[in-house]
Amino acid sequence: MKRPLSEAPKEPVHGSLPPFPSYSQYTYDQILGAFTQGPDRLRAAIAGLSEEELRIRARGPRQWSAHEIVLHTTDSEIQGTYRFRKVWAQSGCELPSYDQDAWARELDYLGSCTAEDRENALELLAALRRAATPLLMRATADYWNRWGTHLAYGKITLRNVLELYADHTERHIAQILQIRDILGKPTNLPLLLPDRLDLNSVHSPAITPTRP
After folding, report:
1. Domain of 104?
2. Is residue 15 scored above 60 in pLDDT?
3. What value, to the nearest 5°, has the Cα angle with vertex 146 and ends 9 and 81?
4. Does residue 85 belong to any structural domain of this protein?
5. Per-residue model confidence as pLDDT tens digits over 135-187
6. CATH number of the domain that 173 lies in?
7. How far is it, in rounded angstroms, from Cα 117 to Cα 125?
8. 51-71: average pLDDT
9. Would strands 147-150 and 93-94 be described as parallel, antiparallel, or unpaired?
10. Which of 98, 113, 146, 167 falls between 20 and 30 A from 81, CA-CA?
11. How many domains does the chain have?
């Protein structure tokens, strides 16, 4: 019989590599809830901003605008969807690396990507999450402990991949809310996972980690 997400094991096994940071303050249901609601919440975070406001790097010249954050979040999710399925099907596998800065630069998020591209990205993010959620909902204890090796973070279980991407949308929603505050356009959108996943505590010192 399949076990619901709330009954999944709470202590993934990591072996000899440094363990992925704990997110045990949140239940599986809270993490899955943030994951499934992420696309709608990201859309809500940018609602009411003009095209100019969406493209302003309000936090500083080297910090992404809200427009860039949306495009990045979906490009990262493409990696995440593949990682979910690869860990599920090939436990013990190596997970592909991803240079978020290269993607942002070479795909020219700010210069070439249009409002239509941004809308397509939001729709794709929602579709990718809809595709991943049924798989996660039918995971048994065995599947939650399946794992892969991440270039920056070492050994991560299927649960860790879920934590990584649930945190990822909430992390970027928080950044957009900060942008809105700077622009004088605040909105009431409480964070579902206000405690951030501490990724800096686990990545290899020889590698500059990308997020996620």
Report:
1. 26-201
2. no
3. 105
4. yes
5. 999 999 999 999 999 988 889 999 999 999 999 999 999 999 999 999 999 99
6. 1.20.120.450
7. 12
8. 98
9. parallel
10. 113
11. 1
Structure tokens at 157: 């279980």
Virtual torsion, Cα 98, 102, 104, 110, nearest 10 deg: 180
Which of 9, 187, 166 has the alpha carbon at shortest distance from 80? Answer: 166
Q: Find the radius of gyration of the CA atoms of the chain.
A: 17
Among the listed residues 83, 100, 106, the one whose alpha carbon sits nearest the alpha carbon of residue 160: 83
Instruction: Measure Cα distances from 212 to 29, 98, 151 in Å.
Output: 21, 9, 11
Q: Are 39 and 125 in contact (CB under 8 A)?
A: yes
Type of residue numbered 23: Y
Q: Are 183 and 51 in contact (CB under 8 A)?
A: no
Instruction: Please tell me the total number of residues recorded for the chain in this structure.
Output: 212
Cα 183–chain centre separation: 25
